[in-house]
């Protein structure tokens, strides 16, 4: 049962979970959330059809009806859940993981995430206890539920004139293929556009540099203004500038301010605990107020709703929008970013120039350490730095984020992998490297 994680169910199919597990999750979900119908979608992975069959059987054996979206992006499932009033939904996907993985993202009413602490843990307990799964006397039915055209129409409502842009776009052989060309037409230079659950060209994880190499090559070959790349289930999107340089996803939170705050006013914006200090400083000049919270959709989406925020984002490339039911959508994020880039191009500003206005500090990116005693190492790093310098701010809700006048760090345990993650940002490269070296010595000394 190693597939149950903080945010979803995910693992190597046939090793960490199987069709029987998928059946039981689907069977128990209607009673967990007290619903009579469940919205279901799936990605194009090789194992998704088998899991889909098990999920449909589980829901209907429990006496609930299935509304089947068929092939879907994860944001399409969020849209359908919230827009059409479903109290439960399942998207069968392993998002950006390699082809041998699969999983299930579960949501409840208003597309609110169901994580380990909000329902998945209960289902895991029921499975572990061997809770029976008798077939209901009133077996549920399966209804086909195609809302793709409706969803495209919703997204088109955010499109502005971007015809002045040259765009290279990597679909990653993933689910973004359902909507990219219907939305953007023949304008972009597409690569890896065919849906293929074996991901023959590169893994559908754009956060890893080697998976962006083809996009960088396309941007340079085509002389594009910007490169766009989606992950496997299209809930994330990332960008490279006209030189092929990767744009750190947290900086895009700041860039989106030019869309949401172009008419003035104030707005609350959400970032995760790893985000650059520069983002909040940049948005403050427009009237943005930055809130910081834990990593992951299971935490970010409810927090944005609770705070009444307008938009938010994460270092991993998720972007959340009040107008999208406080959920994340890679396709909507890319539309809004391209709107901004098209406007700045009219003013003679390149993407790299715009990003440089936001990016003020030197940043390490996440550094991973494999270590058993995560808590001990976290405490040791915090205690070392705090003993040397007085913090100006401190957070402890997702590991530790400790800020000093010229630098800050976050150290946190991964929720999905056996790693301790460290990220650091400083006013100069020398100071950055010094702090990274100090942290590395402390952590590696405890391995």
Radius of gyration: 22 Å
Overall pLDDT level: 96
> Which sheet architecture does the biggest sheet show?
6 strands, mixed
Helical region count? 15
How much of the sequence is in beta strands? 15-25%
Total strand segments: 22
What is the overall silhouette?
A: globular
Supply the helix-strand structural class. Answer: alpha/beta
Termini, distance in Å?
A: 27 Å
Please state how the strands of the largest beta sheet are arranged side by side.
Answer: 1-5-4-2-3-6
Quaternary organisation: single chain
Helix amount: 25-40%
Which stretches are poorly predicted, pLDDT < 50 over at least 5 residues?
none
Short recap of the structure:
With 447 residues, the chain is an alpha/beta fold. The protein has helices at residues 19-33, 48-61, 74-83, 120-128, 148-156, 180-184, 213-222, 249-255, 257-260, 277-284, 297-307, 330-346, 351-358, 374-388, 429-444, and strands at 9-12, 37-42, 65-71, 88-92, 101-108, 142-144, 167-170, 189-191, 226-230, 237-240, 246-247, 267-272, 288-293, 311-313, 319-321, 327-328, 362-363, 367-369, 393-395, 400-403, 407-413, 420-426.
Task: Tell me what you see in this structure.
This protein is an alpha/beta fold and 447 residues long. Helix content is 35%, strand content 22%. The protein has a 6-stranded mixed beta sheet, sandwiched between helices. Strands 17, 18, 19, 20, 21 and 22 form a 6-stranded antiparallel beta sheet that branches. Helix 1 (19-33) crosses helix 2 (48-61) and helix 1 crosses helix 4 (120-128). The radius of gyration is 22 Å and the shape is globular. The model has no long low-confidence stretch (mean pLDDT 96).
